[in-house]
Design brief:
The chain is about 15% helix and about 30% strand. The protein is of the alpha+beta class. The longest helix is centred in the middle third of the chain and has 27 residues, at about 185-210. The protein is rod-shaped.
């Protein structure tokens, strides 16, 4: 068949409805006349409508619109076409129409030439301004206020670096300057976090490697353990901290820590002065025997815990490095010897561990 088309009216947009609509309707009304072999058509026909950016060839614009069973009466047909938003922005467009009789097999026949889109559809452009069409020169200074901006439309991506330095904190979601940390507070918090991380790393290392013997304290105690404002075991800890201030976590050794450190060889290179020297130690296993045969197991030196003077006895330990214990023949090694019932008036240094 020889299809021809003849436009009766240009594309029509009901522009006066725009202010009344909650959302702009992007459809347009198209009315045309269909003539087949010189005779005006009647009946039902299938149509397709495609927008192009050129009269010939070119690229499609917007969405393809396909309509079936369109009534054609004495050649006249009217359809609603919606190619989607953002199509009519001011550029020249050409409409290509294809048609066939409804119910007939085969493809649609493309009508030629394409029809240029005239001014009427560009009423849509008044509602959707083209990208980059409005710049700073077109906006009067001070004409846009905060009430004109939709919520959550301005984010950090829209603020140039450095331009927000004069913002009033009271404008930021009800916050004021008191809600913002000062630089000094931030620095102090960072220092605290760093110190905590170092302590955690030290604890992890201690768990993995076990306790380490650092050596004897620089200070001695006669059992009263009164040092730098501290008393008892806390005073012994303070002695270790001052003697090994480059080792965070230095403290008064327990018998168990020394035994584990000696067994695993975790003795600091700076602890060369510990061999065969008696030092105060913390805790004893009740009922155990000391190296010297004293089996009382007594560790009640009151001065160690309460700083009450020489009323009681305490415990010392001695580390023997690479020596042969009694009755072991020629077998040598490292061992720990304990001795209790030591007078609180006796002067000994403190054994320090990490």
């Amino acid at each position: 068949m020889n299809y021809t088309k003849k436009l009766i009216l240009s594309l029509v947009l009901v522009a006066w409805q725009l202010p009344l609509m909650a959302q702009v309707n992007t459809s347009i009304t198209y009315q045309g006349e269909l003539v087949i072999d010189g005779v005006t058509a009647d009946g039902l026909y299938d149509f397709s409508f495609t927008l192009y950016d050129a009269q010939e060839f070119g690229f499609t614009v917007g969405e393809l619109v396909e309509l079936n069973d369109v009534t054609v009466n004495q050649g006249i047909f009217t359809v609603e076409l919606d190619f989607g938003p953002g199509v009519f922005v001011g550029d020249n467009l050409w409409l290509e129409v294809a048609v066939k009789s409804s119910g007939h097999a085969g493809p649609l026949d493309v009508l030629s030439p394409r029809h240029v889109i005239q001014a009427a559809p560009y009423a849509l452009h008044a509602e959707m301004v083209a990208v980059d069409a409005v710049g700073g020169a077109e906006i009067l200074n001070g004409s846009i206020t905060g009430d004109d901006l939709a919520m959550n439309t301005v984010t950090h991506n829209h603020i140039q670096d450095g331009t927000g330095s004069n913002l009033d904190a009271d404008l930021l979601d009800g916050m004021d300057s008191l809600d913002f940390a000062q630089q000094g507070e931030v620095t102090a918090l960072q220092s605290t976090l760093l110190a905590l991380q170092q302590e955690i790393e030290a604890l992890n290392n201690k768990i993995e490697a076990g306790p380490e013997v650092l050596g004897r304290s620089f200070q001695s105690s006669n059992g009263r353990f009164n040092y730098n404002g501290y008393t008892g075991a806390a005073a012994a800890d303070a002695m270790c901290r001052d003697s090994f201030n480059n080792n965070p976590g230095a403290h008064f050794c327990t018998v168990e820590e020394v035994q584990r450190a000696v067994a695993s060889g975790n003795i600091s290179a700076s602890a060369s002065n510990i061999n065969n020297v008696a030092t105060w130690t913390l805790l004893n296993i009740p009922g155990s025997s000391s190296d010297d045969g004293d089996s009382s197991g007594n560790n009640t030196c009151q001065g160690l815990l309460y700083n009450t003077g020489n009323a009681g006895t305490g415990m010392t330990l001695t580390i023997h490095l690479n020596q042969t214990p009694p009755g072991m023949g020629s077998i040598s090694g490292d061992r720990v010897a304990l001795r209790d019932n030591i007078s609180c008036g006796s002067n000994f240094t403190v054994m320090c561990c990490l």
